[in-house]
Amino acid sequence: MTKSKVLLVGESWVTSATHFKGFDQFGSVTFHLGAEPLVAALQDSPFELTYMPAHEAAERFPFEAAGLAEYKVILLSDIGANTLLL
Questions:
Q1: Is residue 86 one of the residues assigned to a domain?
Q2: Residues of the domain holding 10
Q3: Residue 25's Cα: distance from chain center in Å?
Q4: Does residue 19 sit within a domain?
C-alpha cells in the first residue's frame, strides 16, 4: 500500500527572555519544535510525513504547483504569513 504524503510546515518557534536579578540582567533564547508529538504519532502510520520547521519554509516551501502536487495534504500550523509572503 502506498503511503499518503503529508507536508507539515511550521510548528516551531524561538523564545527570547530577559531575566532580572537585582541590577543584573541575563538573556536566554530557546528553540522549540512543537510538532514532535505529531511526528511521533505518525510514525508507522499510513502517512509519509515531511516536517518543515517554520524557519526553513521561507526558502524550502514548494511554491510551484508541481512541488505542491507531490503531497496529498499540506498542513500550515503556527507559521507567520510573512514567512511565506515575503
A1: no
A2: 4-80
A3: 31
A4: yes
Distance of alpha carbon 63 from alpha carbon 77, whole angstroms: 17
Flag residues of the chain having pLDDT under 70: none
What is the pTM (predicted TM-score) of this model?
0.85
Pair 71, 3: CB distance under 8 Å: no
* Structural contact between residues 49 and 41, judged by C-beta atoms closer than 8 angstroms: no
What is the C-alpha separation between 13 and 74, in angstroms, rounded? 19
pLDDT per residue as tens digits for the range 58-82: 999 999 999 999 999 999 999 999 9
CB 21, CB 28: distance < 8 Å: no
Query: How many domains would you assign to the chain?
Result: 1
- Alpha helix ranges (H) inside 34-86: 36-41, 54-60, 65-68, 81-85
66 belongs to a structural domain: yes
Would you say residue 85 lies in a domain? Answer: no
Cβ–Cβ < 8 Å for 11, 78: yes
